[in-house]
Design goal:
Chain A contains six helices and eleven strands. In chain A, strand 9 (about 185-195) and strand 10 form a beta hairpin. Chain A is an alpha+beta fold and about 350 residues long. Helix content of chain A is about 30%, strand content about 25%. Chain B is of the alpha+beta class. Chain B has five helices and five strands; from the N terminus they run E-E-H-E-E-E-H-H-H-H. Chain B has helices at about 25-35, 90-95, 105-120, 125-130, 140-150, and strands spanning about 5-10, 15-20, 50-55, 55-60, 75. The longest helix of chain B has 14 residues, at about 105-120. The chains are: A alpha+beta (about 350), B alpha+beta (about 160). The structure holds FE2/S2 (inorganic) cluster (2 copies). The site of one FE2/S2 (inorganic) cluster (FES) has 12 residues of chain B, from loops. One FE2/S2 (inorganic) cluster binds near residues 100, 102, 104 and 137 of chain B.
């Protein structure tokens, strides 16, 4: 028996969102009399951090502290319409809708403040700390809370904003089939090292090195953690997980977590991540979406690494020991492409 | 159906509630007692989301008969924080971004707290062993392991 080591590389382009019928997201923003803002969205935070990112985006656009913004994704019955959290569209689509809604609300907020200060709204700026003052005259100032209260109780004004982000449906050229279903791509490249045992067929991922291009990383720690967790899931899909191991036969399919095998905390490969930022022109503050792309490059890279290690080309996931052994038998033994 | 009274302590406070024949501890805690911190993941002992401690030992609440905790000490993730003061493990999970969807988090925290109470300076392998019964779909485990080691190695203070 021998352990063979191999390296595999993969690079991907990943489309952000899915332009079926425009792929729209809506956001509504309003202030409360305490000067704090509520952002209503119907898309759901699955743990990827969408609420945090939309909160940052709203605060940045409104010009108020991030802790004064509350993002409510509670109920798709009562919230504005959204296509949902999928296709890695959250940051890009919802973020853009939040910018528009926040910009409209900011305009009314400045009008309310201008009326109190008896100045032109165009002369006002926000300091991001909860104050609005006259450009160049910081002493002529009013707090966001005072402006919100004046709007509510004296001026009869609603500090609110509506936002929608919609990419027009792309027409299909009947002759060529050409269309532009996406406006933004994220990119990633991944290099993995595996060890393949030619007696058991077992594949162990021992190292992962990746570079992900995500537009601007609006919240770098969230981005990194999403990439780390998503790449782990990619590794799991590459070498472990399946609901139908003998597809299209349903035989031997797992029925619970005893038979649905995933790598546990003891099966981790070190993963070095580089985040590359190339702000997207149509992204909210340049952001795209790491989303599903986290997992995608891992699968082809693992398959390529197995090929490199033992010469077995697997085109059907996951790379189970059984498939590796069958491949080795067909080859008449391991044929490493190179000695590392 | 017969109802049986169960008296026990939950996170240090005395509690009493009725259980029914064959009810498991997870259902009893969530529905009978109202502690929603242990989560239902699989109901058959394979995911760890329901982890609680009984007399300091981590157990899968979905596999424990509720009536067997009579007179014993049960601890759940809800008892980790002292008012606004979080357990250092909770601080470390936050610092390390060790929760994404959060479904595994309560079970992970309870398993980690039980480990550190029994072995305050675990090695990385001992941490891995201690949470190896807890599944996490989101994080890739690494931030969870690192967070527990941050507490064990004194990088996070209470
Ligand atoms: S719910 Fe108890 S182990 Fe999954
Ligand atoms: S954070 Fe989602 S399962 Fe662990």
């Amino acid at each position: 028996m021998a352990i063979h080591r191999g390296r595999g590389f993969a690079a991907i382009n990943y489309p952000i969102g899915m332009n079926l019928g425009g792929d729209p997201s809506q956001a509504l923003v309003h202030s409360n009399p305490d000067g704090k803002f509520t952002v209503a969205l119907s898309a759901i935070d699955l743990g990827q951090g969408m609420k945090s990112v939309c909160r940052q985006i709203a605060a940045e656009t409104l010009g108020v502290p991030v802790e004064d913004v509350y993002v409510d994704t509670a109920d798709s019955d009562t919230g504005p319409h959204d296509m949902g959290s999928f296709a890695s569209r959250g940051t890009h689509r919802m973020g853009n809708a939040v910018i528009r809604a926040s910009a409209e609300a900011r305009e009314v907020m400045l009008e309310a403040a201008a009326e109190e200060l008896e100045v032109d709204p165009g002369d006002l700026v926000t300091d991001g700390k909860g104050n609005i003052h006259v450009k160049g005259a910081p002493s002529r100032t009013i707090t966001v809370m005072a402006a919100a209260q004046a709007a509510q109780f004296r001026q009869g004004r609603t500090i609110a904003g509506r936002g929608i982000f919609l990419i027009p449906l792309s027409e299909v050229d009947a002759d060529t089939g050409e269309m532009s279903p996406v406006t933004t791509f994220a990119h990633a490249a991944m290099l993995v090292t595996v060890e393949v045992c030619d007696e058991t067929g077992e594949v162990t991922v021992t190292d992962m090195q990746s570079a992900y291009e995500v537009g601007r990383a609006l919240n770098p720690r969230l981005v990194e953690q999403q990439l780390r967790g998503g790449a782990w899931m990619g590794m799991s899909h590459a070498a472990w997980e399946t609901t139908e191991p003998y597809y299209p036969e349903r035989d031997h399919g797992p029925v619970d977590f005893n038979s649905y095998i995933m790598p546990g905390p003891g099966d981790l490969a070190p993963h070095h991540i580089s985040i590359l930022e190339r702000p997207a022109e149509d992204g909210p503050y340049g952001g795209k979406g790491p989303g599903e792309m986290c997992a995608n490059p891992v699968l082809p890279a693992v398959v390529n690494a197995v090929y490199d290690a033992v010469g077995v080309r697997i085109d059907d996931l996951p790379v189970t020991p059984e498939k590796v052994l069958r491949g080795l038998r067909a080859l008449g033994g391991a044929k490493p492409r190179q000695r590392l | 159906m017969t109802f049986k009274p169960v008296s026990f302590t939950l996170n240090g406070s005395p509690k009493a509630a009725f259980t029914t024949d064959g009810q498991n501890l997870l259902e009893f805690l969530r529905r009978g007692v109202g502690d929603l911190s242990p989560k239902y993941g699989c109901g058959q002992g394979t995911c760890g989301a329901c982890t609680v401690t009984i007399d300091g030992v981590p157990q899968l609440a979905c596999l424990v008969l509720a009536e067997t905790v009579d007179g014993r000490h049960v601890a759940t993730a809800a008892g980790l924080a002292d008012g606004p003061r979080l357990d250092p493990l909770q601080e470390a999970f936050m610092e390390r971004f060790a929760a994404q969807c959060g479904y595994c988090t309560a079970g992970m925290l309870v398993a980690a707290r039980a480990l550190l109470d029994a072995n305050p300076r675990p090695t990385r392998d001992e941490v891995i062993e201690a949470i190896s019964g807890n599944l996490c779909r989101c994080t890739g485990y690494e931030p969870i392991i690192d967070a527990i080691l941050d507490v064990a190695e004194g990088r996070v203070q209470a």
